[in-house]
Specification:
Low-confidence stretches: 1-17
Number of strands: 4
Mean pLDDT: 79
Number of helices: 2
Strand order of the largest sheet: 1-2-3-4
Oligomer: single chain
Largest sheet: 4 strands, antiparallel
Structural class: alpha+beta
Strand content: 25-35%
Distance between the termini: 31 Å
Order of helices and strands: HHEEEE
Radius of gyration: 13 Å
């Protein structure tokens, strides 16, 4: 089970300046995660963001393009289709 911690003030400052999808994705995903991502993309899932925090493995979050549901690809490459994720409201 994956659980995210509440947003800190530091996270709020970074929100506008950091993209959730890094350009060098291969540095954050292992081969098992990449394989799972490619399989799920065929089913309508899209990479939504990768949460990168110090001393914690990256959290790979997907969103289904039709239903809007979220999924997490665990470090071992398993898809967690019912993650407990605290999401921020988008700023416009």
């Amino acid at each position: 089970m994956t659980r995210l911690v509440p947003i800190s003030e530091k996270d709020n400052r970074r929100q506008g300046s950091e993209n959730g999808l890094p350009r060098n994705m291969q540095n954050y995903l292992n081969q098992s995660q990449v394989n799972t991502l490619r399989q799920l993309e065929l089913l309508g899932w899209r990479l939504f963001f990768i949460r990168r925090e110090n001393c914690v493995p990256p959290l790979v979050v997907l969103r289904h393009q039709d239903s809007g549901k979220f999924s997490v690809i665990e470090e071992r490459g398993l898809a967690n289709m019912s993650p407990e994720i605290a999401m921020r409201a988008a700023r416009h």
